Structures are given as structure tokens and as C-alpha cells.
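Changelog-linked ticket: zinc ion example.
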Amino acid sequence: MPRVSVFVDFLLALELLEEGEILEPRVAKEEELLLFHTKDYIQALKEVSAGHFRAEFRERFNIGSFENPVCPASYWGSLYAAGASIQVAELFLSSKVGFNPAGGMHHAYPANANGFCFINDPGIVISYLLNKGFKRILYIDLDAHHCDGVQHFFYRDNRVFVLSFHQSPSYAFPFVCGYLDELGDGAGFGYNLNVELPKNVADDEYLFLVKEILPAVVEHFKPEIYILALGTDALEEDYLSKLSLSNFALLETFRFVNQLLGSGIYLGGGGYNPISTLRAWAVLWCEMTKKEIPRALNDKALAILQSLEFTDFDERGFDHLFSGLLDKPRNGGIRPQVRDILSKTLRAFFNASY
Ligand SMILES: [Zn+2]
């Protein structure tokens, strides 16, 4: 499903996108890909996209596996997604704000595909900023899954702080990493923090954790610049995650990050219910561009959502998705286990930092 083009159509239908606000994406250049990936891996991706698949690629690079099927469209799509993320960084450096909904492919490793991701655009953007001379870059990831590829690459680097809020890998992808005790290594020790969320975290618990943990990290790390990955799969309606957020929680988190740090470099991420993804990104887009969030959906916008027919995937009633853009907050109180996660997380962070 082409999420990005439908998202653009959705914004146009809601009259939230003005002329001049769409930037034509460009493909990432080879030297940009090599900021994160190995030459062999990029070469293999090129060959596969040209129709020359070799069995060894599956073993060496995890390309062409069930999880990472590759075709020319997926290769070129990844190149455009990575190029667009660099364009958003360039925009930011020229004092403008940009959002690349196709970005946030945080699972890819330097020499292998992983979790539907081939090219790690957040990693490329961070390396690009390091090359520009930034020395304190904060990467904040709100996708429901741990940003394993990004963490891995910057694990020993004290110029990059990786902060991720995600489902605990004890029950969710990537299973093998994303735990609290992964705090960085060598010079990078104390510059990596994983907030492991239990199942069914709703808005109040999520905001409770974000509003306690992020200021501590910012206070200590004092970032010069930040990247915010805005996957939407932590929303209740997403069938790939077990979290229960409304898009109000994502909006509040976005506002909180901006209050604390000013504007940043905004990338997309996962989102496997296209209807809730489009609505959440539209709400965030309004906030990014200081537009008022429409109260109701007009016929054109509604027709786009209804054409997606996503409810086939799930038996739960999702009628509320069609009644407006912004969800009502979903609150259920803060469970003792979440308070416990907060104190454990802060303790681990402060022990590693001082
Ligand atoms: Zn995800």
C-alpha cells in the first residue's frame, strides 16, 4: 500500500497542504548510503534490484528472505526514502521544518536487511549530521518497535544519544535487543536508553514516562539537534503492536518534545493500519505547520479513508476513525508496573551517566 502518496492525497483533501509545501524527493547518493552501509551490501541490493538474485545474498545480507523480500520497487523506494530524509535534514539546517513520512527505517543494519528495512535512513541522517560537525545529536524514536539498527551503529558513540520508547522485546520484535540494560558500550556507555513498555500502555502511562524521562536525558546530554522518528504503530488500532495509544498521545508527545527542544528533523516509521497512520500523521502535520486541526473530515478525506478498507484485518469496531481526525485521550490510570518501569529506567540512566 503506497502510504506516502495516499497521505499526500489525504492532506490535499483536507486542504492542509499548500503549494510549495511538497518537495520532490531525490534518491540517496552512493556516498550517503556508505555513511551507514557497507559497500558489499549496497552492491548486492543493486544487483537484486536489477533482477540478479543470488542465493548467497539471503545468507549474507538477509535480502530476499520472507521478512525482507526485495524487488526493484522496494530498492528504489528505499533510495528515495533515504534521500528524502537527508533533504529534511538539509531543510532543517536552512531553518525550515520538514517531515519525511517515508523515513524511519530504523531496523536495517550496515550489512543486512532487517524488519522490512533495507536502508537505514535515520542512521544515514545522524552520520550526515556528525559529518557536518554536530557533536551532541539526540535520536528519539516513538515507533512501537526498538530501533535496533540505529542502536547498533551508534552504540559506542558518545556524540549520539539514542532514546527509544517501544514494546518490551520480551514480547515484541526484535526480541533479541531493546532491553533496558543496553546502555551503550565503551565511550558510548550512558548514551543509549531503552524504555521498555508493557502491553496495553495507554495515553496517560505513555505521557507519564515521556515527560519524566525525556527531560532527564535532555538535561544531561544537552543535545544540539534532534531527530524524531514518528512511527504510528503504537496506536491502539495498529495490528502489529500491543500498545493502546490514541493519536492524542502522539500529538502531546510531539508538543512536549518541541517545547523542550524546539523544532527538529521529523521522520516517519512503522504504521500498519493505514487509516490510523494517515490520521495521526495529519494531526502531527498540523502541529508541524501550525495549522488548526480540522474538527471533522470532509467527504473527500472520508472517501480516501474508506477506500483503504483496512477493517478487514480486524474484527474490532473502528467507527471512531471515520468521525474526525484527533482522537479522544485514552486513559486508564497509571499501573504500578509502569511506575516501576519509570524508576528502574531513571536509575539505570543516572547510574550510567554519572
Ligand atoms: Zn514499528
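Closing comment: Example verified and attached. The first helix runs from residue 3 to 13. DSSP finds twelve helices and six strands in the chain.
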